[in-house]
Amino acid sequence: MTQRDDNSIENKLTSIKYNCSKNTHLRVNQEMCRNCQKRPCCYICPAKVYSWDDTQSKLNVEYENCLECGACKVVCPFKSIDWEYPNASCGVILKNS
Amino acid sequence: MEQKEVLKFDAIVVGAGPSGVASAIVAARGGAKVLLIERSSFAGEKNMFGGAVFLSALKELLPNTWQSAPFERYILKHSWALLSDKTSCEVSYQSFDEPKSASVYRSKFDSWLVEEAKKEGVYFAPSTLVKSLISKNGHVVGVKTELEEIYANVVVLADGVNSILARDLGLRKEYEPKDMVLSVKETRKLPKSLIEQRFNLKENSKEGAAKNFLGGLAKENPPFGLGFLYTFEDTISIGLGVNLEDLNRFGYNPSDLLENLKKHPSVSAYLEGSELLEYSAHLIYEGGYKKLPKLCANGVLIVGDAAGFVNAVHFEGTNFAIISGMLAGETVLSAISAKDFSKKTLSIYKKKLNNSFILKDLKSYKNVMDNLYSRTNSLMNYYPKKAGEFFKIFTGASCKPKRGEFREFIKSFFSQRSLGEFFKDIWAFLSAIIGVLK
Fold this sequence. Notes:
The structure holds 2 protein chains of 2 kinds.
Chain A: H1 9-13, E1 17-19, E2 26-28, H2 30-35, H3 40-44, E3 50-53, E4 58-61, H4 71-75, E5 81-83, E6 91-93
Antiparallel strand pairs in A: 1-6, 2-5, 3-4
Chain B: E1 8-14, H1 18-29, E2 34-37, E3 52-54, H2 55-61, E4 73-83, E5 88-94, E6 101-103, H3 106-119, E7 123-125, E8 130-136, E9 139-145, E10 149-157, H4 164-168, E11 180-189, H5 192-198, E12 207-215, E13 225-231, E14 235-243, H6 244-250, H7 254-263, H8 265-271, E15 275-285, E16 296-297, E17 300-302, H9 318-338, H10 343-346, H11 348-355, H12 357-364, H13 368-373, H14 376-396, H15 402-415, H16 419-437
Parallel strand pairs in B: 1-2, 1-10, 2-7, 4-12, 10-17
Antiparallel strand pairs in B: 3-6, 4-5, 4-6, 8-9, 9-10, 11-14, 11-15, 12-13, 13-14, 16-17
């Protein structure tokens, strides 16, 4: 598959510029996430920021890829996601949207 | 102790999108000292929308300079298509009159708006994140940024759909997934000449097209959603807005649904040879009139997306943003004249909204989305398929007697689903229409 035809989220994310913040703006309560059956954050996020690590029994949060849409905190059944804006000037940079 | 210099303005506007800029401009025009704060390094950096801004509101805000906005194409052609597995049934509309909307990139458009605001005397502070509001005796008196405290008589919340400030102040409740739409979009590069050919636009012109797609997202468990496509000078945007509860319930990722839409033959034909330039996502609040936030409190007003001003049926958002911002700006000026910034005086804003199309429309449309959402499978699956079947008979010349074919088609309405479903559809659609007109 050529890069141009690759329609994975990973490839779509390469089209976006970010100004990466050193600090996460997405904090989760791992205890709640462990008890969560559905983990909708893992499939709904348009940037695949969240993934469940079975071996460590932990939710991985790749906040660097966040598109700042806010969907994750709305669907989280335990309201476990503390969603803030990234620091000033940090995060996603959209130029053609 | 050394007295610290206190930064004080008549009004602070948080968020430099269309609603924030509009309120800042109107307040500054009336002589107020206004600070416009934006968390990004330039206005529009975080913003995305389908693609077109409505011109009527823009003309009201900037009657003399609106034409200098960075418009990509004027949207003169509109179409709405019902997509089934292998068919597309389309209605199109073309205007030969003055354009009503134009495609823009938010990075350029919002930045241009801010430049207009600066000309009107608005102080602009980019790269500034407001962490919280400062309240004193139940009255908002300023904002706390990452670096300092800044004071004002009124704070206008124009911080968008995720408005953390409105939530923290108790102006709105936490959102529920069923009231939200998650939109994902791709801006794709395509040569200008190809765009003009494919969309039947005049060569080397600023003519543009917008297309909407209903259906074609998933064969089973179709989510409630709508696809869109806009033309820009040398790009096209293809995107999708899907109900968040449906994504949640059915386990969909919005990007996968967008891929399904992109693969539909009637959509892929437009995209062929295009290259991804930028991917983006945004939430839209569709709670509407029934779930409006408190629109003002002591020392604070709320405008645009932060206030939930969206009419999803007509894709209206930027016009609600600009006009609500202007009404908030006027309210700031009235409060300055009255030297009173309490909720009582600021509630003029609510009266102004009630008298404008904003709350009138939100009120008359308050049940439309619920009505349509209750018939998701009919809208997203059943009728697109039926429309395809009808036109297949109508155009197919199958060399079979038409009477039999049409009778079979009509019979299928009764045999494929229970008749009750049909009446539920009629009831929902009529309720939606009557709700708007009554």
